[in-house]
Design brief:
The complex is a heterodimer. Chain A is mostly helical. Chain A contains three helices and no strands. The longest helix of chain A is centred in the N-terminal third of the chain and has 32 residues. The radius of gyration of chain A is 17 Å and the shape is elongated. The longest helix of chain B is centred in the last third of the chain and has 29 residues. In chain B, 59% of the residues are buried. Classes of the chains: A mainly alpha, B mainly alpha.
């Protein structure tokens, strides 16, 4: 299971890196060279993609460990996600 | 003018991303002063941009470290539990704690960690996992390209490492820093995790906490999109380079670099703490 999990997390991270770099690069070029609002939108999408990447990695760890029946890792990953949500809701993390 | 500031931010972020990924730090402690002092950006804009840069550094580093097998995902998720709890506690008690004193204490801790690391610079012996680490299967292994051997390790003193991760979270919540300066020495010196695995695991953990903080910054609209986007692109590039260098560097060299940076950060913390106290 650990090898699968590492592969999935690595893939999520790589997708996050490339897509956010692409969106932010495009966004900043459009924003600096044209008066269009599309630049702002692309940059916002880039930031959202970037921020969701590590959270998606933890979520995938929770899902995969649940599928493989690793209760301890499922519990730990789920708790991390819940505490993060709590922190964001309280505005303190 | 905005184009020039964007280009300069990008260059500074390449540097912070490179150092951050090489040493398992977010890079924010390097980037924020550079943005404020060299580009004269307001501290709020610099901090917001830096949080996004930390996520970028962590994401780009982890994608490479994970492929190299250096990141210990189980250990990272387990320690992240206490770090996030610590970050929430830290943010909740901010008002009750004197920032100047806290900065001085953190500075002393960082210098102590640096001295301890320097004294044990050539020493690393694999530890056996303690009871908790065995139950949670926190041990790991990776192929060391420089030595040409498979390195297997257990995790020792898990409760103490967990406690220090909590402390790193508290400090991160109080001072808005990543806490890698505490997590890496804790994993390496107390837990017996090899320096490369400690750096890679810390990189992974920092991104998770910073991503949650970035959501808050986005909601509060402190973020200047052009500066933040340039900084993210720079950090992604710097971290991609840095995380390709780490597996090719000797653990001893990495420890020496880390020690030097810890001393600089520690002295800077003490200096800023004393400065804050003098201004009151």
């Amino acid at each position: 299971m650990d090898a699968t999990l590492r592969g999935v997390v690595s893939l999520i991270m790589r997708l996050g890196v490339y897509s956010s770099a692409l969106l932010l690069g495009l966004g900043i070029s459009v924003r600096l060279t044209t008066p269009w609002m599309a630049g702002e939108l692309l940059m916002r999408l880039g930031f959202i993609t970037l921020i969701s990447t590590p959270i998606a990695a933890v979520a995938s760890s929770a899902i995969l460990s649940a599928v493989y029946g690793d209760r301890r890792l499922t519990l730990t990953s789920t708790l991390v996600l819940l505490i993060l949500i709590l922190g964001v809701a309280l505005g303190v993390v | 003018m905005p184009i020039l500031v964007a280009i300069l931010s990008l260059i500074l972020a390449i540097l912070s991303g490179l150092l951050g990924s090489l040493l398992g730090l977010g890079g924010g402690v390097i980037l924020v002063p550079l943005l404020v002092l060299l580009l004269h950006l307001p501290i709020h804009t610099a901090s917001a941009a830096s949080i996004f840069a930390v996520v970028a550094t962590s994401t780009a580093s982890t994608s490479n470290y994970m492929r190299e097998g250096l990141t210990n995902l189980r250990l990272g998720v387990f320690l992240e539990l206490s770090t996030t709890l610590g970050a929430i506690s830290g943010a909740l008690i901010t008002a009750a704690v004197g920032e100047s004193l806290l900065r001085v204490i953190l500075g002393v801790i960082l210098i102590y960690a640096a001295v301890t690391m320097f004294r044990k610079i050539g020493e690393w012996r694999p530890h056996a996992s303690d009871g908790l680490a065995s139950r949670l299967r926190l041990d790991g292994s990776y192929y060391d390209r420089v030595e040409g051997v498979e390195v297997s390790y257990g995790v020792d003193n898990t409760p103490a490492v967990l406690l220090l991760s909590y402390l790193a979270g508290v400090i991160s919540g109080l001072l808005g820093i990543g806490g890698g300066g505490i997590k890496v020495p804790a994993m390496n010196l107390l837990g017996g995790v090899p320096i490369k695995a400690a750096v890679a695991t810390s990189s992974f953990m920092i991104g998770i906490t910073a991503a949650a903080a970035a959501i808050i910054y986005m909601r509060q609209r402190y973020c200047d999109p052009i500066i933040a986007a340039s900084v993210v692109l720079g950090a992604l590039l710097g971290a991609s380079i840095g995380s390709r260098i780490t597996p090719r560097v000797r653990g001893r060299t990495l420890k020496l670099l880390f020690t030097i940076l810890l001393i600089i950060l520690g002295l800077r913390m003490i200096h800023s703490g004393v400065g804050l106290w003098m201004r009151r």
